[in-house]
Amino acid sequence: MPRKNKPKAFSAVQAVKSLARERIGTPPPEKVESGRPRQKTEKHKPRLQDLMRGE
């Protein structure tokens, strides 16, 4: 005979969120802003030899 599921512990956070969803509704999905493309910075400093050559 299968056992009955144990009731979950009360969570105040989940209770408040569920009440807010009932009263206000679900929040809108998050919008991702695609800002201007960034330039990649150099990973390493240029060597002294490269600076002396003028590269």
Account of the protein in words:
With 55 residues, this protein is an all-alpha fold. The protein has one domain (12-52). It is built from 2 helices and no strands. The radius of gyration is 28 Å and the shape is elongated.
Secondary structure elements and pairings:
Blueprint: H1 12-23, H2 48-53
Low-confidence runs: none
Average pLDDT, all residues: 86
Strand segment count: 0
SS field, number of helical segments: 2
**Multimerization status:** single chain
Major sheet details: none
Rg from alpha-carbon coordinates: 28 Å
Keywords:
mainly alpha; 55 residues; single chain; elongated
Could you give a short description of this structure?
With 55 residues, this protein is mainly alpha-helical.
